[in-house]
Amino acid sequence: MKNMEIKKMQTKILPEVENIILVASGKGGVGKSTVAVNLAVAFMREGYATGILDADLYGPSVPMALGLEDARPRVWKENGKDLMEPVEKFGIKVMSLGFLMQKQDAVIWRGPLASKALTQLIENTRWGKLDYLVIDLPPGTGDISITLSQKFPGARAIIVVTPQQMAIADGRKAAHMFVANGVDIPVAGIVENMAWFVPEKHPDEKYFLFGRGGGEQLANEYGVPLLSQLPLVADVCELSDQGKNIFNSGNAILIKAFEELAQKIDQVKEVPA
Ligand SMILES: Nc1ncnc2c1ncn2[C@@H]1O[C@H](COP(=O)(O)OP(=O)(O)OP(=O)(O)O)[C@@H](O)[C@H]1O
Q: Which residues bind ATP (predicted)?
């Protein structure tokens, strides 16, 4: 399919969004939401109008990572439809099903219902004009991720993995999801999170706690770039617990890594034909 046709299909659903980046992982806990949130902030800092959609219906962690647990979007009716305005934080527009649920609610929808709820969330949110919409997918390769990938044929994906071999096997499934099931989403590259640990008092030492080379191996297998290797830093966990982002940390390595990640993704805007 030609670039223009792909763009046109995407345009129908979100006409005012220029670029969609799907952030995926083969399994939970690898740092997918952390990467999605901080990538969105990095795009905003590059001067782009940016939004983030938390599509992880079963464990929406974006509101917490942004300190927005109690936020509620403005909702109004138009032509019988409930429309919503995203919540703003750090200059980015944020939408999550978490905003519409009580904290103790557990989402027990099965696939088709969950996909329908998400579709409504996407279509009824008034994002306004955006250069980038970052979508934090649920972990794994379930219905929601596949439905969403089919909805946005003009999107690009990044896959977050940790360096160990087991994680690579999961990352491979995520990468495969974007080329199978009638989905044809280009994988922009791999992000290896928790690649190594650097003790604060010994910044020259690197400890490869979870093995090494996994991100590179997956990137080579799929012929895509290894976009970034992010170290394991205690700050990350503490910051997200406090609703802060990497750019509040003063951690020069992480700040540079996210700036470069946003710039690399931005350099290759065109969808390959
Ligand atoms: N580079 C890092 N260094 C230290 N802690 C990290 C790093 N990346 C993520 N974390 C922490 O690991 C935990 C899991 O991260 P996160 O919620 O982003 O993972 P996830 O892949 O989105 O998981 P899930 O899909 O299950 O929600 C969080 O507490 C987060 O703060």
A: 26-33
- 28 has binding-site annotation: yes
Q: Which ligand 1 atom is nearest residue 239's CA?
A: 31
**Mind listing the pLDDT tens digit for each residue in 39-66?**
999 999 999 999 999 998 777 889 989 9
* Substitution candidate for ligand 1 out of 64, 236, 246, 254 with most atoms within 8 A of CB: 236
Expressed in angstroms and rounded, the spacing between residue 272 Cα and the centre of ligand 1 is 31
> With a cut of 0.95, is the ipTM above it?
yes
The CATH number linked to 194 is 3.40.50.300
Is residue 41 domain-resident? yes
Using DSSP bridges, classify how beta strands 74-78 and 92-96 pair: parallel, antiparallel or unpaired: unpaired
In ligand 1, the atom with minimum distance to the C-alpha of 233 is 3
260, part of any domain: yes
Q: Which residues line ligand 1 (CB under 6 A)?
A: 25, 28-34, 56, 59, 61, 139, 193-194, 230, 232-233, 236-237, 240
CA–CA distance, 273 with 271 (Å, rounded to integer): 6
Q: Where would I find the beta strands (DSSP E) of the chain?
A: 17-24, 50-54, 74-78, 81-85, 87-89, 92-96, 130-136, 156-161, 187-197, 226-232
> What residue type is 141 in one-letter code?
T
